[in-house]
Amino acid sequence: MQKRNKTVAVIGAGDYIGGEIAKKFAAEGFTIFAGRRNGAKLEPLVAEVEAAGGEIHARSLDARKEEEITSFLNDADKHAPLEVCIFNIGANVNFPILDTTERVFRKVWEMACYSGFLAGREAARLMVPRGQGNIFFTGATASLRGGPGYAAFASAKFGLRAVAQAAARELGPKNIHVAHLVIDSGVDTAWVRERIKEREGADALAKLPADRLMRPQAVAEAYWSLYQQPRDAWSSEMEIRPFGEKW
Amino acid sequence: MQKRNKTVAVIGAGDYIGGEIAKKFAAEGFTIFAGRRNGAKLEPLVAEVEAAGGEIHARSLDARKEEEITSFLNDADKHAPLEVCIFNIGANVNFPILDTTERVFRKVWEMACYSGFLAGREAARLMVPRGQGNIFFTGATASLRGGPGYAAFASAKFGLRAVAQAAARELGPKNIHVAHLVIDSGVDTAWVRERIKEREGADALAKLPADRLMRPQAVAEAYWSLYQQPRDAWSSEMEIRPFGEKW
Amino acid sequence: MQKRNKTVAVIGAGDYIGGEIAKKFAAEGFTIFAGRRNGAKLEPLVAEVEAAGGEIHARSLDARKEEEITSFLNDADKHAPLEVCIFNIGANVNFPILDTTERVFRKVWEMACYSGFLAGREAARLMVPRGQGNIFFTGATASLRGGPGYAAFASAKFGLRAVAQAAARELGPKNIHVAHLVIDSGVDTAWVRERIKEREGADALAKLPADRLMRPQAVAEAYWSLYQQPRDAWSSEMEIRPFGEKW
Amino acid sequence: MQKRNKTVAVIGAGDYIGGEIAKKFAAEGFTIFAGRRNGAKLEPLVAEVEAAGGEIHARSLDARKEEEITSFLNDADKHAPLEVCIFNIGANVNFPILDTTERVFRKVWEMACYSGFLAGREAARLMVPRGQGNIFFTGATASLRGGPGYAAFASAKFGLRAVAQAAARELGPKNIHVAHLVIDSGVDTAWVRERIKEREGADALAKLPADRLMRPQAVAEAYWSLYQQPRDAWSSEMEIRPFGEKW
Question: Across C92-235, where does the E strand assignment appear?
Fold first, then answer.
């Protein structure tokens, strides 16, 4: 592995997608700054990255707090120039609109949209003066479609997509690649497997075909391919799904 | 004018679009409940509606407060069954993303998205037991496109559109028509004329062609046509613009 | 009924949607020019319109032939100024792409897209010099989504939608309202009922709930509402579906 | 270069995009089958590919003729299994709708849509039995938007996109990756440079900033990245533009 004097910040470095993104960019020689609500849960990721010869800094991070986002990204940038900031916090909930409390609606927005705005803006502040950088946001089916039961989640994800679009249009000409990755499928996580079990039964889960879920590693690869795009052919949005997915 | 024993709530009954909606539905015999931040500013509207033989109840309403929305809509519904709830609060601001404070981002969302969610949900609570009603939301170009400078505004408007979509899918089968009206143009208001003057000069404003701006009355007519749709041919979204608009 | 010295051309005046459009505009006092492949099949429509005191001219029309379209619209315009041209020819087929012959692909395009282009262009030629007119196109779910089995049909409907968009942008500033009406549901026709029977059984058809299909009259009403729009609030596209439709 | 026993067919192997796609896949070890209207014009491409150690078979191909498409793809597949089929024929014309002859409308469709359908279907026929393959289509801004003057071109490109969508949904579960690449910008070709000169003057062309046009090589790279996607994270559509593009 060739070390690069550049950092990659992963905000929302969860056990699946976020962790895989961190491992991928670490394996490519970047120093990772990984943040999640409870930083202690990052220990296995740190161990895995370091065992593979990578460098990673793990932090507890409440991304809804402006000062925490600012100091997290500033720390990364002080370590080495912040090359990529990936915002990967989800907050997938499903409630009929009549059962959606104002507290849930607000909290989902704070986690999935507001904190994404803060992350994008603070990353841009560090990148604009250098005229270089990449800001990526994780989207979902609910970024494009307000399905039944998704008033809160789709509202937040739509809002995050708007932030990505405005940022892409403002920052692209400044050589900062802003992209929104729409994961239009279930990802293979414990949580998704649990939902399938709930809805379709243990048997359906046991027989889950290989084409049904997306590996978290595939998401990490998609981010890597966005990062590899030459600047005369940037995607501002990329939509991915498994080959067997109905859509 | 034939009186109807039904109420129409206009949340965001401003001097232009909201006021015209109120006048239109009042002229069609509905009792209007009109709310805006500073209820005192509703006096001219009340005078105009009453002079024309209509009935209107004007209220100060901070639509970001759940309890105020609830009591506003409950009062309307106690007066006579709430037939239509129109959410018409905008919060059009334009700032480069780097200059968008967390306070602005949050406030625009509270005004243009969060309060729309509250209004839609509370209206639905009153309408669902009756199996009858209409919930309409005012959208804008920024509901569909995150243009430069619109990180905050587009994020809120995208989010409101998602609420409308989820609500339409959940409530349509319950005979409640949920629609999102996208006004893809400038509307003829003092504020818009001022923006044109700022950007293009007093001369351009003076020579503004008739086809450039949309009359607030035309928006009211569009809402009326949505209300007139038979239930086997509902639009969940309608986009309107002047004939001379470039898009 | 107040007679108007204006004509409405309905290209594709079939037994359901096209016929209802003709009846609606005839009832509003317009003289109808109705064309369909086999003009003899228009006799019941003519009888019904005339019994109601309306005026209608029925013609055999192969809309894929430029000279036929031209003379059909010219005849209408000679009778009285052509106020509205509605293109309503469908060609709904569903074949796996591997089973879609080049003949089917071409024929569906000629019926559903190419003839629509001819109709729109020829109507525009008559309307542009007067600076007045309306050109409406009937779209479908397949106008927006290339579903499985719809390579031919969706390709034609996508293509027609592009014609409508280009025409709307070119002709709007010339005071010609071009609109594309997306019927996102099954319409209550013999053909659709037969499809439901095939796919879901005779029992399902017998128990078909009232909210499942759209009445052809509702489509005619949607066109009428498009025609009623003031020119500072035109829709270039309108999507309609029954209240119980899943989408 | 490691040789692979697989062929890549490029239909529309023009001097710019198509040629670069051929060179890229040849450099990756695939045997190229390159077709364009006038096969003699492929000589420089053949020379370049062979000089670099690649293998390429050049053919005259009128892609609007079913039997030519069939035999072109069959020949490729006989040589070695057809791994990728890329349809890259454009037909960019701009005429006001009133000046769009039926001949132009039909010809543009035959070149840009109908021949794409033929190519996709024939490639699928070869790939489906093996349960393996990739079918890619080149799209443009006009695939998504019917701009003024683009009735013919956008209609064809919309239609091609529908073919790609239907094919993606039908063939994805059969392990065939169908994707539509939207090039939302000018590409650096002699033709585009000529158009810029016409519209903006020789001076503007001389001072053309580096961020304005996309290199044909960047398009080839985008296709390569689509080909590299793991099958649990396929994009069915990818949109690319230069960093400085306004959209």
Answer: 133-140, 176-183
Residue B120 has pLDDT above 80, yes or no: yes
Mapped onto helix, strand or coil, the DSSP state of residue B202 is helix
Q: Please list the alpha-helical segments (H only) found in chain B.
A: 17-27, 43-51, 66-79, 102-109, 115-127, 151-171, 190-200, 202-206, 216-228
CA B221/CA B1 separation, integer angstroms: 17
ipTM above 0.85, yes or no: yes
How many residues belong to chain A? 247
Classify B77 as helix, strand or coil: helix
Contacts of B215 in chain C (CB under 8 A): 230, 232-233
Q: Is D210 strand, coil or helix?
A: coil
Radius of gyration of chain C (CA): 18
Residue B67 · residue B117 · CB < 8 Å: no
The reply to whether residue A154 touches residue B145, judged by beta carbons under 8 angstroms, is no
The pLDDT value recorded for residue C209 is 81
Shortest distance, CA B47 to any CA of chain A (angstroms): 35
CB pairs under 8 A between A and B: 148
Residue written as token pair 């499903």: A94
Chain D contacts of A172, Cβ < 8 Å?
Answer: 243-245
Q: Does residue C43 carry a pLDDT above 80?
A: yes
Q: Which residues on A lie below 8 Å from B108 (Cβ)?
A: none
Considering only CA atoms, which of B34, B50, B46 is closest in space to residue B86? B34
| Strand, coil or helix: A70 | helix
Give C56-89 pLDDT, tens digit per residue. Answer: 999 999 999 999 999 999 999 999 999 999 999 9
Neighbours of chain B (3+ CB pairs under 8 A): A, C
Nearest CA in chain C to B243: C172
CA A223 – CA A221 distance, rounded (Å): 5
Chains that touch C (3 or more CB pairs under 8 A): B, D
Q: What is the DSSP string of A163-222?
A: HHHHHHHHHGGGTEEEEEEEE-S-BSSHHHHHHHHHHH-HHHHHT--TTSSB-HHHHHHH
Q: For residue C106, what are the contacts with CB-CB under 8 A and spacing of at least 6?
A: D114
The average pLDDT across D15-30 equals 97
Chain-chain contact of A121 with B113 (C-beta, under 8 angstroms): no
Cα B39 from chain centre: 16
Kindly report the number of other CB atoms within 10 A of residue C242's CB atom: 25
Q: Has residue A113 got a pLDDT over 90?
A: yes
Query: Any CB–CB contact under 8 A between B165 and chain C?
Result: no
Tokens 């228009």 found at: C42
Q: Which two tokens stand for residue D48?
A: 């370049």
The answer to whether the pTM exceeds 0.90 is yes
Enumerate the β-bridge partners of residue C89.
none
pLDDT at residue D201, rounded to an integer: 92
Cβ contact, residue pair B97, A148, below 8 Å: no
pLDDT tens, A30-73? 999 999 999 999 999 999 999 999 999 999 999 999 999 999 99
D85: three-class secondary structure by DSSP: strand
pLDDT at D211 over 90: no
pLDDT per position as a tens digit, D72-98: 999 999 999 999 999 999 888 999 999
